[in-house]
Amino acid sequence: MNQEEIWDVDAAQRYDTPGTGMFAPEILRPTVHRLAELAGGGAALEFAIGTGRVAVPLVRRGVPVTGIELSRPMVQQLRTRADEATIPVIVGDMATSVAPGDFTLVYLVYNTISNLLTQAEQVECFRNAARHLRPGGRFVIELWVPELRKLPPGQTATVWQAEAGYIGLDTYDVLRQHVVSHHFRFDDTRQARLTRSPHRYIWPAELDLMAQLAGFELESRHADWSGAEFTAESRSHVSVYRIPPNR
Question: Domain Methyltransferase, which positions (predicted)?
Fold first, then answer.
């Protein structure tokens, strides 16, 4: 599976869930508030902008946003919410594509850096963020913590969510740091819908080293967008990296 096959027309049309899931106000509101603070009055660049889940409300907060997105169907879905003049988008790979402009913030949300399936590509993503930022600019990554502590010897899968109509499980290849997320959606019938996506998981310490290679310093790390403390039990983190102001 490659990313263009995963994020096809069908996926793009089903992606938005207004008011629920990732689009729930209790998730979006603190995300947008924190990013607006970090932009510091400048412009923002979103890697893997998707359908504009974060970019559209961030623009409404007064932050100019440009996007980079690999999937044309996702961009087409974004265009139902904002035109090119409002949110310009470069179609391409977030590890190598260049967007015109002067940015104080680059951000990459909801685990999307793990869509890059090699360490080299993930390092290039950091370098691409750095080349877009003015001195003192920030790169923000939201990412899950690999749940390997849940794997007893001989087991390769964890169930990370189970609720009415949905089961989510991950299968791990620990030698390559690869994981495939399996999403089962079902109703009262005997049929279920399965979608899958491959990822390369990254430990926080490895992420910090990638940042260092690209010239960033870790400024802060919290367990969520509201600033909760990051601990050994945290399932995800929001990490803020900064280019030194005197670069």
Answer: 45-137
User: Which phi and psi (to 5°) does residue 19 adopt?
Assistant: 85, -10
Identify the CA nearest to 31 among candidates 227, 221, 190. Answer: 227
CA–CA distance from 117 to each of 52, 86, 98, 176, 179 (Å)? 23, 31, 20, 9, 10
What tokens were used for 22?
Answer: 């990732």
How far apart CA 136 and CA 242 sit, in angstroms, is 6
Q: Specify whether the CB–CB gap between 93 and 26 falls below 8 A.
A: no
Closest CA to 87 of 96, 99, 104, 71: 99
Can you give the length of the chain in residues? 247
* Residue whose structure tokens are 């870790």: 218
Give the SS3 label for residue 60.
Answer: helix
User: Closest Cα to residue 78, out of 126, 129, 16, 21?
Assistant: 16
Q: Same structural domain for residues 69 and 20? A: yes
Domain count, the chain: 2
pLDDT digits (tens, 9 = 90+) for 156-215: 999 988 998 999 999 999 999 999 999 999 988 888 988 888 999 999 999 999 999 999
> Tokens 């290849």 map to which residue?
173
CA–CA separation, 236 and 146 (whole Å): 9
Both 142 and 153 in one domain: the answer is no
Residues 137, 66 share a domain: yes
